[in-house]
Design brief:
Blueprint (H helix, E strand, L loop, with lengths): L12 E2 L2 E2 H8 L3 E5 H10 L5 E5 L6 H9 L3 E4 L2 H9 L15 E5 L4 H10 L2 E4 L2 H10 L4 E7 L21 E2 L3 H10 L3 E6 L8 H18 L5 E3 L17 H19 L4 E4 L3 H4 L3 E13 L2 E6 L8 H5 L5 E4 L8 E7 L11 E2 L3 E2 L2 E4 L6 E4 L20 E6 L2 E6 L4 H5 L7
Parallel strand pairs: 3-21, 4-5, 4-12, 5-6, 6-7, 7-8, 8-9, 8-10, 10-11, 11-12, 14-16
Antiparallel strand pairs: 1-2, 3-13, 13-14, 13-20, 15-20, 16-19, 17-18, 21-22
Helix pairs in contact: 6-7, 8-9
Length: 425
């Protein structure tokens, strides 16, 4: 099991490089990723036959390339993510011979471009609706697919991250498996795999329920199944007192299920896991500058040059992120109870809030305008959810590897931002 991090309210370096140096070289706000942490988390999952990275968590080409070179497969949830995977060096399964497709397209619908790409490049489809099977069958009969099953229940740290149950749009409802098999048979499509993912932060109690539901679904699909996917949802540590799931027990549940399926069908079953957040969350740091220290009645605010246009998780889910101040000298500063917010013309632009928009002040060292504040564990669903709200540019991204900081995305310029906009003549 990974060693639990110890969070501090002060920080001087990221991956061995002084934070001040990173800010001086790349400006703020900037996302900084520690490659060593990504690879450490990947190695945690080595017991599984295949680790398939859910790139929606952090899809920079350099991150995809890093994971590809260290053996991870990749999941794509859009045409754009298929293009990203190909651009990062993942190969399409052109002849359908791969035992584990390098790229899998997982979705509940095909838009026209995604369907074209899956047909053209023989991208394996993990189908979340009967309509996907029908649409692929018309264009490319005889293909192999995976069914993403909604088992009728879910789990998540927020209702917005729960991907199972009858209030979730995701997956094929478990009672519709027979209907989907009829569609597949009509087009000669082989259901070679079953995938099940119920949401984020899955614990062992819920996991045992998932395994039971998976076993039932696989039995209904039949002996054409050669792979099962455990999905993602592995919890990440964001605060003192959080814990990782017991990965040996996690694997043990899935491996025992795999063995039962192998005994039932008499052939080997490949076992995949599909982490996103788990691989990259802890690697990411959003470096920002404090631009105002202001008192509003009883409350003290640190206002940054980064807002929810850079990191939306707090306003979306009330997510907690560790924060640290970069000290200017060796002086130990007393802590103050502060609210940390951004520059946006929006009352919800607050990083220290809980779900529902309730402000939750944080104890941080006394700081001044011009000092740096680091929002930690921000590598997952950080940059990828960025926007140009208030016409603010997207942040830069930096990957630190072997002691070297590499710019992997330049800061967006105003010209970049308006490219494509047209004033009619």
């Amino acid at each position: 099991m990974p060693v639990l991090p110890v969070f501090s309210t002060t920080r001087t370096q990221i991956a061995g490089i002084p934070v001040e140096d990173l800010a001086r070289q790349f400006g703020t706000p900037t996302y900084v990723y520690d490659a060593a942490i990504i690879l450490e988390r990947l190695s945690d999952l080595a017991a599984f036959d295949h680790v398939r990275y859910a790139q929606k968590a952090c899809s920079n080409l350099a991150v995809l390339d890093l994971l590809r070179r260290h053996g991870a497969l990749v999941d794509a949830v859009s045409a754009g993510e298929i293009h990203r995977a190909l651009a990062a060096g993942y190969k399409a399964d052109a002849d359908g011979s791969a035992t584990a497709p390098p790229i899998v397209y997982t979705a509940d619908v095909f838009d026209s471009e995604a369907l074209d790409l899956c047909v053209e490049h023989n991208i394996h489809a993990n189908c979340g609706s009967p309509e996907m099977i029908e649409q692929l069958g018309r264009r490319a009969p005889g293909r192999a697919i995976t069914l993403r099953i909604n088992p009728g229940f879910g789990h998540g740290h927020s209702r917005k991250t729960n991907t199972g149950g009858d209030q979730s749009k995701h997956g094929i409802w478990h009672e519709q498996i027979g209907h989907c098999l009829e569609i597949a048979s009509r087009y000669g499509i082989v259901v070679s795999g079953v995938h099940m993912h119920i949401g984020s932060g899955t614990d062992l109690e819920h996991l045992s329920q998932v395994c039971a539901a998976m076993e039932k679904s696989v039995a209904e699909v039949g002996a054409s199944v050669t792979s099962i996917s455990a999905g993602g949802g592995l919890p990440t540590v964001y605060r003192q007192g959080d814990s990782y799931v017991d990965l040996s027990a996690h694997f043990g549940l899935w491996n025992a299920l795999r063995k039962r399926i192998e005994e039932r069908f008499g052939h080997k079953i490949s076992l995949e896991i599909e982490p996103g957040r788990y691989l990259v969350a802890e690697s990411g740091f959003l470096v920002a500058e404090i631009r105002a220290v202001k008192r509003q009645g009883a409350h003290l605010f640190y206002l940054l040059d980064a807002g929810f246009n850079n990191l939306a998780r707090p306003i979306l889910y009330g997510s907690h992120h560790p924060m640290s101040i970069v000290p200017r000298d060796d002086t130990v500063r007393a802590e103050r109870t502060v609210i940390v917010g951004g520059p946006l013309c929006e009352s919800g632009d607050i990083f220290t809030q809980t779900e529902g928009g309730f402000v939750s002040p944080r104890d941080l060292p006394e700081a001044e305008v011009g000092q740096l504040l680091v929002i930690e564990c921000a590598g997952a669903y950080g940059f990828v959810m960025g926007s140009n709200y208030n016409s603010r540019p997207l942040a830069a991204e930096v990957l630190v590897q072997a002691g070297r900081a590499n710019l992997i995305r330049r800061r967006q310029s105003f010209e970049d931002m308006i490219r494509g906009e047209v004033i009619p003549g």
